[in-house]
Amino acid sequence: MALAWRSVDTEKRIQLALQAVNANSNCASAHVLLAEECASTVPEADKYFRQALKIADNNIRKFVSVPSHDVKANSLHRRDINICVYARRRVAMCLRKMGKLKECIKITRELIKEFPLMSVLHIHENLIEALLAQKAYNDVQALLTRYDDLTLPKSAVICYSAALLKIRPVCEKFFADVTVKKGLTTHQFDAVEALQRAVEFNPHVPQYLLEEKPIILPPEHLLKRGDSEAVAYSFYHAAHWKEVPGSIKFLECFWKDTFKLIPFPLEKGKLFHPYTSGTEETDRELLPLFHDVSVYPKKELPFFLVFTAGLCLFTLSLALLTHFYPIFMGELARIALEYFATPFAMIAEHLQALLPQQVWNLLTRA
Known about the structure:
The chain has 19 helices and no strands. By secondary structure, it is an all-alpha fold.
């Protein structure tokens, strides 16, 4: 299995995992790999994950019943715990895909309760997604109260779910023209603040929710605050926004106002750290080649530099043409001067016809 995990070839990994299962049917990590890469349907992947979970649970019970002080045994025990947590989480995700929301929520809650330190796996985000699918908004709010803390790491799921819950009570009766005349109410202002907070954390998400950019399958790995995280969030949560009437319209009206609050996002943020400048390169490695990677902030040259560069290029072109084709450019310059001088000659003729001769003589002498 060590060779299987190191291999970059999918077929070779599957072949090595099958060999490991044939050599030892109780190899939990082999069943995990087969579930991830060999299973063609969700029920088939669920079957592999449940087999891995069963093996890992048996190994954990054996270790607990006969405690060992051997370093290798302790290392294997930690591995079995990690496999157990991962397999149970993936079983819950399979149940979510099969529409068994209650079972999914039950397993995820048990995982969070038994392994509270496993927040690195973002199990609570899977629970939020399942609860939103069940429209259990009060439970989502209770979960966000626990995890949406200043001391805990943020994610697009946390920030945009909090914004969606703030928007939900006010978006159904939201009318842009009325808001312009009367101003925002207290609840609408709170919703706008929550939305601006979410957009500041990941500014790529609204384009996918508003269907300005196509949503693709999320990559295997993602980068926080990057386009890859926006793709993954939109893939799983766009339906939840559409379930709330008026939320997309509210998002469309206010999400761009965030950028006025952070004019220099690479230097200073309002609620979060400055935006990292290297996310574009990382996202290009994580996302497929056909995907148009969203870039923020867009690198725009100042108008003065663009104007100066254009003027220099135009002057250089004229100098080269004059050097190589002096007769043609001279004739062209004469025609251009006559063309531009024609309106002034016509104005002078009209003034001469309108003004008295004495006044015209005074003007021409001056």
